[in-house]
Structures are given as structure tokens and as C-alpha cells.
Write a sequence for this structure.
């Protein structure tokens, strides 16, 4: 009997998982920006329907949140030291690594606070606790943490918006660390 071409086309060799879809979405976002990220475009990458992807991912917001989760899943992984300044430097180096590898994902987080996942909240809280340990005062430590977080977000925005064709060149982790070291030297 002859096989019918009716119905939904299948790709029997493809195994779709949420992790694979999210990784491809991150890749697409990094190369084409948010405007280039759509379920249809993502579906074409896998030769499946957009609904097949929605089955695994859910809404666009859930896709974006999963992308942020995948990018920042290891941001709080570091060897805790006795020196709070070293801990802040290590945490922020991890964060900067995420920023430099996935600037478009970071831009999404900075534009939509609903994407501020638990790992980022934990990062902020750890920085706050380490700052309090440095100055031994909750109010001043909170202010110091706010300055560090604001500097970090400002740098992240500048890094995600940078154009390497300008006279400014490319912002690097060395540039970022100079600012953090300056802030930490003041206390």
C-alpha cells in the first residue's frame, strides 16, 4: 500500500527536548536579536511546526524565561572564600561571563523584570550579604551592594549595546574588574 502524504509531516529522526530548543533559541537570539526570535523561525531550524515547539516550551514568556535560566544556571557557582571582596569578584566574574557570551539574553532581563530568575535574585542577595560582611553595617552594606549591582547593570548594558566598530573598542572583563576593584578599594 502506498504511504499517504496527508496529515502533519514528521521528522522521525529528530528528538526535541526543551534544553535543545532553548539552546537553539539562545543561538538565534544572539545572532539575530529579539526581533529575529520567533516560534516560526525556531521551528524552521528543526524542520517542525511552531506548535510542536510550543508543546515543549509553552508561551513566548516561558521560552524567554527558560533561556535566561539556561544562561544563568551556573552564575552562583564559585568556591566560597573567607574574604568577602574575593567572593564578590568571583560572583561578578561569573555574571560578566554570562553577559559577554549572551548579551542579548542579558538585555532581555534588563528590559523585563519578570525574567529576573531565582539565580539572579540569589546572586544579588549574596552580593548584599558579602557587602554587609565587608563594612559590618547592614545599611551601609546594602548601599554598597546597590552601587555594585548598579555598576554591574550599567556595564552590562554598555557591553550589550557596544559596537566594536567605534573608537571605544570592545569592553572586556578587565574593564569591568577595574571598576569593581575601584569600588571595593573604597571600603
Amino acid at each position: 500500500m502506498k504511504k499517504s502524504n496527508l496529515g502533519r509531516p514528521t521528522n522521525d529522526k529528530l528528538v526535541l527536548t526543551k534544553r535543545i530548543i532553548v539552546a537553539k533559541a539562545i543561538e538565534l537570539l544572539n545572532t539575530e536579536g529579539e526581533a529575529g526570535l520567533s516560534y516560526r523561525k525556531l521551528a524552521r531550524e528543526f524542520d517542525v511546526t511552531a506548535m510542536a515547539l510550543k508543546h515543549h516550551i509553552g508561551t513566548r514568556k516561558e521560552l524567554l524565561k527558560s533561556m535566561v535560566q539556561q544562561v544563568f544556571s551556573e552564575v552562583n557557582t564559585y568556591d566560597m572564600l573567607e574574604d568577602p571582596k574575593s567572593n564578590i569578584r568571583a560572583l561578578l566574574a561569573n555574571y560578566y561571563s554570562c553577559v559577554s557570551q549572551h548579551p542579548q539574553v542579558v538585555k532581555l532581563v534588563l528590559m523585563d523584570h519578570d525574567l529576573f530568575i531565582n539565580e539572579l535574585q540569589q546572586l544579588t542577595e549574596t552580593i548584599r550579604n558579602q557587602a554587609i560582611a565587608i563594612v559590618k553595617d547592614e545599611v551601609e552594606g546594602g548601599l554598597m551592594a546597590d552601587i555594585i549591582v548598579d555598576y554591574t547593570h550599567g556595564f552590562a548594558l554598555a557591553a550589550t549595546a557596544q559596537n566594536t566598530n567605534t573608537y571605544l573598542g570592545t569592553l572586556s572583563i578587565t574593564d569591568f574588574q577595574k571598576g569593581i576593584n575601584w569600588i571595593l578599594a573604597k571600603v
Q: What stands out?
A: The chain has two domains: 18-58, 72-185. The chain is about 65% helix and 0% strand. The mean pLDDT is 87.
